[in-house]
């Protein structure tokens, strides 16, 4: 346990991430233990009746879960956090905790695809009115608010098409109409964008990505402000959500190094995105941290950094040329998810209903890992040669 009694809020973010939740460890051990628990015993009949002891049942919390949840709340500057078994379960648990049949929810057209599927397959069938909106709407969201609107959902940037949303403007319109603002904050790792300082009420993460950081754990996280916490906590517990203790331990271990990892991801991504911008095969680079890219001005205003995820629109390519490019890559894997130490590249086709996708080229999403950027550029350059030969 850290000896200092310094208020964590007075420390810089990187120091807070190293220092937070250390009081859950014991016997001078630096990291909290992994508690595998279902049954937790009560010392007396009176204690059983009162249900006031700190730990009551494994699913209701252990020192392991409290440590990672405290650390994530510190990362996000929120009131309190809960972890869930995946990023998708973080989305679904949040929405189910605050919505009922007859309610209306606004969803950005750029939402993470599994989140969209949940809205279309579950919420609509449950009687919730789901409406997709242009993610670049900003303050004009007010025109879409109804008396039954309970949530305006945001994802900034969109994890494929990279639209940066004007969260403060959206929050102003939503709150005026009495709706909550829920933000998927996965792209920033929670480290480079403060949801609550920009008007959001709840921050959601696929902690699988940058918080874990090593492509080996599925984990979600939800952080609330003080007003939304009681209802979310009740919904979380009613739905029986919890995550495994070993995964929670690895999540906390990953979070400790997110400051230095994100800095490296960002530095390499800016380098490679700028290089890709000059390639003749590339029509457009969609990376908000790149000057001149879509969303750069809002990103510069609201974010303190960028992650390693961005997209590229190539000039139109045949499937044969695209296969030649992708199949021969040696350092870029083809796989879903992102945020780990390894670089990835996958093609995608945007699914849009509110804001048509008008770009005609082939779309690729890149995650820039922790490899040397010169090696990554050499791998991509060889891929472009294969693409050209197959065109």
Structural write-up:
The chain has 391 residues and is of the alpha/beta class. The protein has 2 domains: 8-256, 3-Layer(aba) Sandwich (Aspartate Aminotransferase, domain 2); 259-390, Aspartate Aminotransferase, domain 1, CATH 3.90.1150.10. The chain contains 12 helices and 12 strands. It has a 7-stranded mixed β-sheet, sandwiched between helices. The protein has a 5-stranded mixed β-sheet with strand order 8-9-12-11-10. Helix 6 links the parallel strand 4 (149-155) and strand 5. The mean pLDDT is 95.
Describe the largest sheet: 7 strands, mixed
Radius of gyration: 22 Å
Structural class: alpha/beta
CATH homologous superfamily of the largest domain, by name?
Answer: Type I PLP-dependent aspartate aminotransferase-like (Major domain)
Summed up, the domain count is 2
Tally the helices: what do you get? 12
CATH classification class of the largest domain = Alpha Beta
Oligomer: single chain
Protein name: Cystathionine beta-lyase
Keywords: Lyase
Enzyme class: lyase
EC number: 4.4.1.8
